[in-house]
Description:
Blueprint: H1 2-6, H2 8-27, H3 32-43, H4 54-57, H5 65-71, H6 74-82, H7 91-96, H8 118-133, H9 144-156, H10 162-170, H11 172-175
Helix pairs in contact: 2-3, 2-8, 3-8, 8-9, 9-10
Amino acid sequence: LTIEMRDLYTAGHQRRVMNLAVAIARTMNLGQDRIEGIRMAAVIHDIGKIAMPAEILSKPTRLSRTEFQLIKDHPRVGYDILKTIEFPWPVAHIVLQHHERMDGSGYPDGKMGHDIPFASRILALADIYEALTAKRVYKPGMPWEKAVAIIRREAEDGKLDLELVEFFISNELFKDSEI
Length: 179
């Protein structure tokens, strides 16, 4: 509610990412406990943006290098907010690592491969897909075909979990879903 009051875009984004991440986890039959952990992390994955200036979050043009550096701090800020809360799942760590990439090019820590929790990899995929397909102040939403072509290229370049991406793309359930 706090995030929604501050930034309606972020709240809607987090809900859509949560819906997609949960759908992916369910379709993979991960088990109800793991699905609940992914759901919780996904619905608050951008909580660290609460510390970002509103002008940057809603800026209709490209961010400067300094502004983007501030945005890149949001996973760590989110982790700092969540790390003292007792969850039955590693929510703070999932949030911390949702922008990490398989090849180490992500942030905030440059983690690689299977050092990134599977839940964070699911969250990353859902986050990227939602960002590509959702309409924003500064861009229209992409159709499925264009978004998955970009996601597939990212996976083939070693940034995203290739098996997870192939599962997502090959599953008709996700093609026409409203997230």
